[in-house]
Automatic annotation (TrEMBL):
It comes from the Bacteria. GO terms for molecular function: protein-disulfide reductase activity. Pfam families: DCC1-like (PF04134). This is DUF393 domain-containing protein.
Amino acid sequence: MTVPAILVFDGDCGFCTRSAEVAERIARGRFTVVPWQRLDLDALGLTPQECEEAVQFVRGSGSRHTHVSGHRAVAAALREAGVPWSVVGRVLTAPGLDAVAARVYRWAAAHRHQLPGGTPACALPPGPR
């Protein structure tokens, strides 16, 4: 079974849901955007913990799936969306900018309950990031 590219987000988070709505608009049908709570994570090779901690971008078929998370998932989705977004996606993972994008993503994930659309329910449980 071939699975189209999927951007997997936390559907319990208001900030994530609003961000996913933006992703759907730029995707133009090139990938799907689905909350992890509605997916068979085992079939995609994901865990609930991975999906709670960071957005995931999954590609694959049959039992072979690959995924990237966090800022690399955002970059992969942007690359999949085509021009002009693909340029932004490549920039996010360019040498020298990859580490900066990772830090910005980790900060946003840790503070998503304080960002536009966020609610106290968006807060991540304490733990290493």
